[in-house]
Design goal:
The complex is a heterodimer of chains A (115) and B (112).
Chain A: E1 5-7, E2 10-13, E3 19-24, E4 31-37, E5 43-50, E6 53-57, E7 65-68, E8 75-79, E9 88-95, E10 105-106, E11 110-114
Parallel strand pairs in A: 2-11
Antiparallel strand pairs in A: 1-3, 3-8, 4-5, 4-9, 5-6, 7-8, 9-10, 9-11
Chain B: E1 3-6, E2 11-14, E3 19-21, E4 23-26, E5 32-38, E6 44-50, E7 56-59, E8 62-65, E9 75-77, E10 86-93, E11 101-102, E12 106-111
Parallel strand pairs in B: 2-12
Antiparallel strand pairs in B: 1-4, 3-9, 5-6, 5-10, 7-8, 8-9, 10-11, 10-12
């Protein structure tokens, strides 16, 4: 069964450093998303991406964040200058385009720790 | 705005007990509704879904019925197992390209 994959599974970085989180969505999906989950809290939407552009972003997704689909398979989230409060689990998700609003399929997550 | 409210946890039950986790939603239009499960140390897995009123989603012995009149999507299981211990998230999505809105999650502990 196809699945969303994410790398790395864990990342530790110093405050102020740039990090890039990588995702490979399910191959025939066209909508892509990033969410984050601060430890013990709810899952929060960051950004959605379709047709090579951002379709929606939350207030969390400020100028420090960017997303890119550099090739036909990868989908990346970049944090330019990490803050302590960026420490969280980051989930990538993808969904197909047809039919009623169906489920999004989530990757296993990248746990980011900013020191 | 659109939102999902689910019962606070943790919920602790003995094995083979009956489980209900309440979930209600606020949304315009006709959202699809989901339950996701997060096992310890793992990501989010889709447990079940329902895309229109009166639909019943089911999987692994879990069920939930989309009740538009009460804006609810309560999760039930007749006989829980220790392996069901996890965090359960109720969620909604309004259109096929829209984000998912999650509830805060309910942690479930099943005692042997």
């Amino acid at each position: 069964e196809p699945e969303v994959t994410q790398t790395p599974s864990h990342q530790v970085t110093q405050m102020g450093q740039e990090v890039i989180l990588r995702c490979v969505p399910i191959s025939n999906h066209l909508y892509f998303y990033w969410y984050r989950q601060i430890l013990g809290q709810k899952v929060e939407f960051l950004v959605s991406f379709y047709n090579n552009e951002i379709s929606e972003k939350s207030e969390i997704f400020d100028d420090q964040f960017s997303v890119e689909r550099p090739d036909g398979s990868n989908f990346t989230l970049k944090i330019r200058s990490t803050k302590l409060e960026d420490s969280a689990m980051y989930f990538c998700a993808s969904s197909p385009t047809s039919g009623a609003p169906g489920a999004q399929y989530f990757g296993p997550g990248t746990r980011l720790l900013v020191l | 705005g659109d939102s999902v409210t689910q019962m606070e946890g943790p919920v602790t039950l003995s094995e083979e007990a009956f489980l209900t986790i309440n979930c209600t939603y606020t949304a315009t239009g006709y959202p699809s509704l989901f339950w996701y499960v997060q096992y310890p140390g793992e990501g989010l897995q889709l447990l079940l879904k329902a895309t229109k009123a009166d639909d019943k989603g089911s999987n692994k012995g879990f069920e939930a019925t989309y009740r538009k009149e009460t804006t609810s999507f309560h999760l039930e299981k007749g006989s829980v197992q220790v392996s069901d211990s996890a965090v359960y998230f109720c969620a909604l999505r309004k259109s096929r390209d829209d984000k998912i809105i999650f509830g805060k999650g309910t942690r479930l502990h099943i005692l042997p």
